[in-house]
Amino acid sequence: MKTDSPISLVDIAELSSATAEFDFVVGETEQQAFASISGDFNPLHLDPEFARGRGLKGAVVYGAMIVAQISRIIGMRLPGSAGIWSSLKIDFREPLYVGEAAHIFAEVTHYSEAARSLSLKIKVASGERTIATASALATLHLS
Predict the structure, then answer these.
(1) Fewer beta carbons within 10 angstroms: which end of the chain, N or C?
(2) What is the pTM of this model?
(3) What span, in angstroms and rounded, lies between the C-alpha atoms of 52 and 35?
(4) For the chain, what is the largest distance between any 2 Cα atoms, rounded to a whole number of angstroms?
(5) Chain segment 89-102, per-residue pLDDT in tens
(6) How far apart are the C-alpha atoms of 95 and 22, rounded to whole Å?
(7) What DSSP assignment string belongs to the chain?
(8) 102 with 23: CB under 8 angstroms?
């Protein structure tokens, strides 16, 4: 089952094969907003010239902005409003650059009705480049 919307209670039986995905871009506005919220004004994330001078192709998206997309896919799509995430392990493989298109894909690797939880495998890519891989556990809160 592929989902572009939150899982409904009717779909719970199909969770063991569920997937969700979407494209996203983190722009300068989001980077500036995160810097203001977090207090992290590292120029590698905000100044493309500074970043290029350090061997990068441009300003690098904050890792937390990628984690925010994981939050989005769990909270809005898989499992959606029926769950919250309990744990996350993420490995950043390559930088994602500000303004660069990316794609996130998540799939359920295990569903436990007894524990009311989903194990997810997540990949973030830009073209052929793997930006990050992650595993997450989401706890279901059903009535």
Answers:
(1) C
(2) 0.89
(3) 19
(4) 54
(5) 999 999 999 999 99
(6) 19
(7) -EESSPPPGGGGGGGGG-EEEEEEE--HHHHHHHHHHH----HHHH-HHHHHTTT-SSPBPPHHHHHHHHHHHHHHTSSGGGEEEEEEEEEE-SPPBTT-EEEEEEEEEEEETTTTEEEEEEEEEETTEEEEEEEEEEEE---
(8) yes
Count of Cβ atoms closer than 10 Å to residue 20 Cβ? 26
Contacts of 49 (CB under 8 A, 6+ apart): none
Q: Which residue has the tokens 């073209």?
A: 127
pLDDT interval class at 10 (50, 70, 90): very low
How many C-beta neighbours within 10 Å does residue 66 have?
Answer: 22
Buried b (16+ CB within 10 A) or exposed e, 86-116: eebebebeebbbbebebebebbbeebeeeeb
